[in-house]
Structures are given as C-alpha cells and as structure tokens.
Write a structure and sequence with these properties.
82 residues; mainly alpha; 1 helix; rod-shaped
C-alpha cells in the first residue's frame, strides 16, 4: 500500500479481521496449554491419593487379620475349661 493514499473501509475490515483471527488463535492455544497443565497437575494429585488410599487399605486389612487372630486366641482362652 502507498502510505499517501487513504485506507478504504474494506481494507480496514480485512486488516482488523486478520488481526482478530490471529489473536483468537493465540488465545485458544494459550487456553489449551492451561488446560493441559491443569489436567497434568490433577492427574499427578490423583495418582498420589490413589497410592495413599492403597497403603491405608493394605494397613487396614493387616489390622483386621491381626484383630481376628487375637479374637480367636481370647475366645480360646475364655472357652477353656479349668
């Protein structure tokens, strides 16, 4: 374009549309990156919580087994005749 000539309305609209489309694309990419970062963080947190729950469940099962063994021993002692 010649700098001495005025810009037509159609040229202005085309330039603004192109700029708006470029900024919209940049914003979409930025939002996708934020979404990816959030999902990655939530996934990591979920894996940690799953490991913690698994540890608690295993420990709980162990305590139940030990308690059942103690109950059997106490019952054996209580039902023994002198």
């Amino acid at each position: 374009m010649d700098n001495d000539r005025p810009v037509t309305q159609s040229q202005l609209h085309a330039t603004l549309d192109a700029a708006l489309t470029a900024k919209t694309d940049e914003l979409k990419e930025f939002m996708r990156q934020i979404e990816t970062n959030l999902l990655t963080a939530f996934h990591g947190y979920g894996k940690g919580q799953q490991a913690r729950m698994h540890t608690l469940e295993v420990a709980d099962a162990d305590v139940k087994i030990r308690l059942a063994a103690l109950e059997d021993r106490v019952l054996s002692l209580e039902t023994r005749r002198p």
